[in-house]
Amino acid sequence: KKRRRMANISVTTTAPVNIAVLKYWGKRDEELLLPLHTSISATLDQADLKTTTSVTASPSFEEDELWLNGKKENVNSKRIQNVLSEIRKRIQEVTIEENGVKTVLNREQLLTYKVHVHSENNFPTASGLASSASGYACLVFTLATAFQIKEAFPGELTAIARVGSGSACRSLYGGWVQWLSGEKENGEDSVALQLADETHWPLEIFIVVVNKGQKEVSSTSGMQTSVETSDLLKYRTSDVVPKRAEVFKKAIQDKDFATFAEHTMKDSNSFHSVCLDTYPPIFYLNDTSKKIIHLIHEYNAYHGCLKAAYTFDAGPNCVIFVEPGQNANEVKELLNFYFPTEGGAESTLDAKLQNLMSPLSKGHIERIIHTRVGPGPQVVPQ
After folding, report:
1. Nearest Cα to 17, choosing from 291, 348, 374, 267?
2. What integer pLDDT is reported at residue 214 of this predicted model?
3. First to last CA, the chain
4. What's the CA gap between 276 and 253, in Å, rounded?
5. Nearest to residue 259, comparing CAs of 2, 17, 21?
6. Which pairing describes strands 114-121 and 65-68: parallel, antiparallel, or unpaired?
7. pLDDT over 70 (residue 39)
8. Which of 45, 46, 322, 339 could form a disulfide with 50 if both were Cys (CB 3.0 to 4.6 A apart)?
């Protein structure tokens, strides 16, 4: 008898970048990407930085295929395969509605489907702006939406994103997110959970892109060298992070910027100290990065309180958190004055604020992205 044609499934979604304020550095399990300790992040608004992923699933496709920014990639990479197999394990049934007619596809049928994935970032990959986090979060969210997968427990999808890229698990929620290190060896309790949504405390954020180049030491290899050689990382894991996680959770809940700012800067410095304590040492910050650190401390001293906080990931780019309003405008002026990207315009900064340090010449900074805390992944209407 004639087999009825099985329908194709198509879904497009977007997912955000996240910036850790309590840094993730070091794995307790390389295969499952389980972290040594917890981490906390802010999700960035997708108006500025996002990954867009389209998945078409069809029984007529011969094999799974993946395109990233228009270029065909190896779909057989271990991390991509991990994600696909975790998704396929959870497929139950899919209901499709075409012209008012509902069709239900069962698990057996759906396992004959192959997927074609097209993924685009609106920012440079491997530029020190975490593209793997938004990329894998978007892949998981798109596949889960396409195959109508329901979470068996809160954060289940984040555990699937984690096997693609550790920090991707934090990009499945908006606002403020904590990734739990978990205790179990199989990693099922190493999930991300939302601490507060994007409306709770919508801090403004400046990303100072210091240079677009690919970083010298990838996070994956740098992390493992630190685990093997840094005594400071052991102390960070056992003492610094557990205490600071509680401080961050309370500061975010209470919208206490002074405490949040102090610990954001201290934790960035702690992470880069671990990089220095790694043998051989890893240097992610460059001279421009250090000048930004100096400027923010001088700026806060000028105000006599904490008005801005810097944090750096595994690269020279700086992320600065500020409270919304007048203060954000002043920090924007400050950055444009000391780190010009274009020819010098007249500054409206207070004279004292123009004398915190010597301005740098043009060309040290690629661009400054002004963004804010934003929502989690979104389905794009067809």
Report:
1. 374
2. 63
3. 34
4. 33
5. 21
6. parallel
7. yes
8. 46
